[in-house]
Design goal:
Length: 149
């Protein structure tokens, strides 16, 4: 059985439910980007309907919230056929979550720590001495007969 490891973002909060035989399952809507960027700088994305089973799913559910990004290990990745709300046949990618590695949230930027350091007005900047470029460092002295074999 092959597994897929991917950094994915949650499209909605985890939904915990209990199956008829008493098992707990968290339903997840995951999205990840792949491939090359298009002309606007966007990469294509793929949505995955995933299920995370057991006690660990219930324990981690509070951290599996919309917009959070974590590393997911998926197994049993397959395509499911279903009928959409308009009665048309549609397909979706589905999988079982084998494991989750929680990633920290990006730190909130603190405007004060990101501000450039400024010198007090009383302190003067060091004076820069103009320097001469070393001889033979320009394009004028390059040979035009460079072979490209």
């Amino acid at each position: 059985m092959s597994k897929m490891y991917e950094l994915m973002r949650l499209g909605r909060d985890a939904e915990i439910r209990t199956t008829p035989n008493g098992e707990r399952v968290a339903n997840l809507s995951l999205v990840y980007s792949y491939g090359r960027k298009d002309a606007e700088g966007n990469r294509p994305s793929q949505w995955v309907d995933a299920a995370f089973w057991g006690e660990r799913a219930e324990t981690l559910a509070p951290y599996l919230t919309k917009g959070a990004m974590h590393l997911f290990s998926l197994s049993d990745v397959h395509i499911e056929k279903y009928t959409d709300k308009n009665g048309y046949e549609a397909f979706k990618l589905a999988a079982r979550v084998s494991d989750v590695t929680l990633c920290p949230k990006p730190k909130e930027r603190d405007a004060q720590t990101d501000a450039p350091k400024r010198r007090p007005a009383t302190e003067s900047a060091p004076k820069m001495q103009p320097t001469q470029p070393p001889a033979g460092s320009g394009f004028d002295d390059m040979d035009d007969d460079i072979p490209f074999d």
